[in-house]
Amino acid sequence: MDDQVHGLESGGSSETGSGLGTDASTSIAAAAPTESQDSSSSSLATGKPAFRWGLFVQHLCTVVIVVLVLGGLVGFAIGYRPLHRQARKNIVATPAKIEVIWPAIKTAPGEPAKTWLPEQFQKEIMNLALVQLGETPAVFSSDPLESVGMAMEESGWFVGRPRVSRVGENTIRIDGTWRTPAAVVRANSKDLLVAWDGRMMPPTYELNASGLCVILPVTTPHPMKNDGSVDFGSVWVGDDLHAALELLGVLTAQPWSGQVAGIDVTDYVHTQQLAIITRNETRIIWGGKPSKPLLGETSTQSKIDRIAEINRRFSRIDAKRAAIDISGVHAVEINIAASAQAAVDADQEKTGLRQAARSDE
Q1: Which pTM was predicted?
Q2: Residues 243 and 231 in one domain
Q3: Max mean pLDDT range (19-28, 50-59, 168-177)
Q4: pLDDT given for residue 347 in this prediction
Q5: Which of 39, 194, 221, 223 is the most buried (most CB within 10 A)?
Q6: Burial classification of residue 91, based on how many CB atoms lie within 10 Å of its CB (0-12 exposed, 13-18 middle, 19 or more buried)
Q7: Is 346 within the bounds of a domain?
Q8: Does the residue 297 lie in any domain?
């Protein structure tokens, strides 16, 4: 019995010891509660949820940012118009300046740049640009630039539309590809300027006042708009005109081109032949257009060589005759009766012409 009691006491002691150990651990853990447990305990004690400071700060920052953005937009909306008005006044106070990149010609090193465009036409182009800009151009709009570009394109001076841009505070720059004058076409007792592509250019000259080669007489009128004004954007149609421009392109590359005064296309419609008019008012029968010589004619290069040889022998491309024909494959044909100098060394000159013809065969 004592043993049983002792055993029970031992067992009780053992269980009691074990139980005391567990309770001690729990008590120790409970002795150091966490912050969340304190909050929970506090919440449970007060019956209210815990205040979340992190979420509060996040919402506060969002509200501040929204207020700042809205304030900036409102300030911009209120201040933009007065600022724009004041800036416009400051810029428009100075008249717009037009800067044109003029077509240049080659100059010797160290010499200032030069242009072939006469000052009279430079002023006309500048005035046209100023008219398109108006007295008070919208400095913050591209519309004035578009107006200037369109006017320059339709003026007949440029190939296509030039680039029109603002440079600095109040300068408008015009920069484009210029048409190159080729010749004048005689029509209605006036000399009309044309470019190499057959499009007209603005200047109109009195007869023989341009200093350029003349093409006469063409069979088709120059291009016109519906309102009766000159259409500078369209090509002047006519095979005779374009054949003459092609021949002039070949002749201007020659060292003796200064003796050429123009191209006569009178017979082109019927015979497809062109004639060179010299500065001495004489004629050289050339024949078909350079890219397509007529049947039975010598080549274009042979014609050039023949004229060059005549010029070498006589110091004139017309051999001092009123008319010569260098188009055929045989000897140069001359018109002695029409020459004012027919009686001067006629036999010697005929011999020279025959030798020139044989030299290119």
Answers
A1: 0.66
A2: no
A3: 168-177
A4: 47
A5: 194
A6: middle
A7: yes
A8: yes
- In a domain, residue 50? The reply is no
Rounded to whole angstroms, how far apart are CA atoms 321 and 356? 15
Q: Which of 282, 276, 274 is nearest to 322 (CA)?
A: 282
- Grouping H, G, I as helix, E, B as strand and the rest as coil, residue 155 is coil
Cis peptide before 82 (omega within 30 of 0): no
Token pair in block for residue 359: 């030299």
Residue 278 inside a domain? The answer is yes
Q: Does one domain contain both 296 and 277?
A: yes
Alpha-carbon gap, residue 78 to 76, rounded angstroms: 5
Question: What digits encode the pLDDT tens for the residues 74-131?
Answer: 666 665 566 555 555 555 546 678 999 999 988 888 888 899 999 999 999 999 999 9
Residue pair 166/99 in contact by the 8 Å Cβ criterion: no
| Residues 186 and 245 grouped into a single domain | no
User: What's the Cα-to-Cα distance from 212 to each of 80, 184, 230, 257, 267, rounded to whole Å?
Assistant: 57, 6, 21, 12, 22
Q: Which of 141, 157, 175 is the last residue of a domain?
A: 175
For position 83, what pLDDT does the model report? 59
For residue 212, the enclosing domain spans: 180-237
Q: How many domains does the chain have?
A: 3
Same structural domain for residues 107 and 129? yes
Side by side, the strands of the sheet bearing 163-167 are: 97-100, 171-175, 163-167
Give me Rg for the CA atoms of the chain. 48
Residue 306, C-beta contacts closer than 8 angstroms, at least 6 positions apart? 298, 326, 332, 356, 357, 359, 360
